[in-house]
């Protein structure tokens, strides 16, 4: 039986790598993009059907799912990366990132869950970030969205797993996908946070330029999908086994200082 996988944000980065990996494994893959017609032919993957979806528009999501048919696997990957001092983040920017990173993915999950439950099979992967487990200064809005989708997945998995539907979160560390160039930044020219902001985000950008390839994250996503009973959380990159082990045994204040110092900040 050919299963259908839906991957949001499939035109680049982790989404594109995941769509390619699932297609290679024989899945029928539907990849979403806000504007699929803008994807160059050279960047389109064979075996992937590209469909338009605006995750910030609830009506768009309803129309999309109504025409979709059965979905066995959902990879909620699309999102925005945002940075700025919390004092200076515009309200509309916070609303936008929550609409795209949280509310849209949760609504999409709600729409496909009934079919998964009725068929007795489903896999849902929320693509989060290790920043949700190890928060970084000037990323509060982004960190909050990734913590939120992890919370939805970790709580709701208790509800749906008796029906053969498993929710899990994959938290990548630093990934070399060019995301630093697409990150939205909010910092005033005369901001009292300006120096620390550029120091921390500069370190972050440098780490990402040396990070793992998107294909490594895709491999972890596929492993979660293939698991008979996927774990609540998978992490990959940024020495994840070591830092998660350290988090379990070290005092929280020590981990906080370690993260600050690694990004050139005093604590």
Automatic annotation (TrEMBL):
Limits of the Ketoreductase domain: 3-169
CDD domains: 17beta-HSD-like_SDR_c
Claim: Cell wall biogenesis/degradation is one of the keywords in the record: no
Superkingdom per UniProt: Bacteria
InterPro entries hit by this protein: KR_dom (IPR057326), NAD(P)-bd_dom_sf (IPR036291), Sc_DH/Rdtase_CS (IPR020904), SDR_fam (IPR002347)
Keyword Phosphoprotein: no
GO molecular function: oxidoreductase activity
Pfam families in the cross-refs: adh_short
E.C. numbers: 1.1.-.-
Enzyme category, top tier: oxidoreductase
Record's keyword terms, sorted: Oxidoreductase
Family, as annotated: Belongs to the short-chain dehydrogenases/reductases (SDR) family.
The protein, known as: SDR family oxidoreductase
Organism for this UniProt entry: Antrihabitans spumae
């Amino acid at each position: 039986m050919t299963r259908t996988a839906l991957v949001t944000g499939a035109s680049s980065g982790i989404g594109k790598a995941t769509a390619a990996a699932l297609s290679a494994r024989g899945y029928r893959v539907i990849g979403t993009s806000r504007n699929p017609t803008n994807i160059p032919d050279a960047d389109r993957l064979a075996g992937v059907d590209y469909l338009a979806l605006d995750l910030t528009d609830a009506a768009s999501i309803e129309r999309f799912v109504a025409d979709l048919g059965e979905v066995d696997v959902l990879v909620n990957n699309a999102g925005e990366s945002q940075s700025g001092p919390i004092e200076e983040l515009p309200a509309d920017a916070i609303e936008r990132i929550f609409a795209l990173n949280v509310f849209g993915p949760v609504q999409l999950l709600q729409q496909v869950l009934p079919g998964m439950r009725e068929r007795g099979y489903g896999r849902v992967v929320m693509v989060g970030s290790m920043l949700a487990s190890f928060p970084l200064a000037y990323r509060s809005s982004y960190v909050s969205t990734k913590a939120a989708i992890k919370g939805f997945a970790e709580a709701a998995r208790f509800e749906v797993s008796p029906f053969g539907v498993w929710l899990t979160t994959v938290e990548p560390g630093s990934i070399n996908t060019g995301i630093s160039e697409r990150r939205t930044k909010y910092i005033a020219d005369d901001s009292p946070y300006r120096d620390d902001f550029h120091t921390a985000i500069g370190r972050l950008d440098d780490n990402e330029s040396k990070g793992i390839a998107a294909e490594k994250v895709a491999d972890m996503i596929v492993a979660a999908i293939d698991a008979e009973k996927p774990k609540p959380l998978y992490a990959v990159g940024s020495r994840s086994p070591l830092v998660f082990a350290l988090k379990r045994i070290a005092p929280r204040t020590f981990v906080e200082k370690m993260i600050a110092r690694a990004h050139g900040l005093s604590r």
